Amino acid sequence: RKTDGKSGGVFGEGGTAGSIISGTDRRDLNLAPRWSSWFSELRNTLLQMLGLLASQRVLFATEVAGMIPQLVSVLVDPQNLRSMEHRHLNQFLKQVIEYLLLCCPKTLYMTHLAPIIGPVFEHVQYRLEKSWEPILRYGGNNVTSLRPLFTLDCEAAASLALQGGEAWFLSYYARSCLFVGDLDAVTAEAALEKQRVELTRTFGDTLQAALALKGEWALVLANLSKEETNSKRNDTFTTNKQNKGPPNRLYEGHVNADGTPKSQNQAAIDARKLGRISAMCHFLFLEHEQIAGFLTLTVIQCLSYPDAYTCRRMTRICHRILETAAWHPRYTEILGQRMLSAAVQNLVTEPKWMVGIEWDMINVVRDIYCRLTLGQVVQPGGQGAGLQQAVVSQNPLTYEQAKSADRPLQGGGILTTPSDIPRQVLLSLPGIDVRMIQQLDEDLQRKRSAKDQKDFIRDLLRVAADQWSESHPTGDSAGVLDRAVGAESLLHRGKADVEDIPEKLVTHSMLQKKNKKSEDGPQGLGAFELFS
Length: 532
Prior knowledge:
- By secondary structure, this protein is mainly alpha-helical.
- It has 18 helices and six strands.
- It has helices at about 30-55, 70-75, 80-85, 85-105, 110-140, 155-165, 165-175, 185-210, 215-240, 265-285, 290-300, 310-325, 330-350, 360-375, 420-425, 435-445, 450-470, 510-520, and strands spanning about 150, 180, 375-380, 385-390, 390-395, 395-400.
- The strands form three sheets. It has a two-stranded parallel ribbon. A two-stranded antiparallel ribbon has the order 3-4.
- A hairpin with a 3-residue loop joins β3 and β4.
């Protein structure tokens, strides 16, 4: 491969290679700008080979079973994981972990998957927490811990690294694991922010792929939904005797939901993937305590990170967690207390970065409250009306478990013995009393449509937001944590006023025609002013 600076790329005209090293030119044939690129390519090549081994099922063959413990010891070595840069961990998640989750046979989850993703998810939780902590604490303002690592700061950083320990890694993660050299301050800060956000988004995308919320597994669920819709449509046509005309191949099952043609054995492949989707949800949240604990905790923490892209996708993952594990008593505290508190805090404090995703967050609040407190099941993704379960006994109050409790893809289950933890979370909000909570319960049980229930929750949280706003007046700018103004906030945005249509309809073209006549002046004999 030619790297003479004439063929483009990072070493060509306008490239970035060597730009952080003072006294070097990226178009000169020197080694300094190339070392980082060479090492990066070498690391990516090794990760791609591991991903290829996973996608081709080589890692799960009996012939290499004896090598798995050695591979696991290398991949999850604590020192290696903590020393990786954000960009390297991004590649590790995308090229290795995602393929392991999607390609591992469900019978080998505990032996081949758990030893790897357990420590990895534990480390990701720690890394994301420490990377975002300065932002959440100081609002992204100019503080020492967020200052990029320039050339002048190398000696102090090197001495801190030699000491090792927690202090070095806290500084390392706060700076997004980057050395920016002699870059200008604006570019350096943008690079740090990009790495921090990209790592969080990569983690969310990996989880979405494993939980069938995107990617090839999500296509399987989309195909099922499409087939159900087509089946209902065909039944309607048959009943009404309207099934006429040439057949439409879109309704004959020859194409996927995304428009791509189906393969010859698509039905068998989809059935196998569907079984693995359900098994993966059960494995991640109900079979391995380390994986379930750190995975759920990380998802809850990501709800508070000021990135709308990540937060919107984490709300979808929250619904899948509720569908899978809301019925289990051990999840009551973490879902009813921690997840609900994080969602409610985002809505009540009204940060500017939340604008546009408030309804998604309100839907999470609704899903938690209905499943843990009211005995109502909602459709997958928090959609549809709440299905009220029958009461088994009044003392103590116990609901009948939903038939879909062990099938998260069909809505999941509820907590049969309702918990007061969600009520206590709402009661802790400023301006909220017991009477309001009782009224909310009555409203949610009286009207169970998704729109009505979300409107009831919105009205309650508006009261808390007003009280919180009075006790926390807007002061100095908080950077990325600025509060949304009244016109931006969903809680305070008024309903659009729709004017009544007049009895005589006046269109824009009619007004233009009238104005044109007045500009042209009188027509016919009137133009001669005979009677003036």
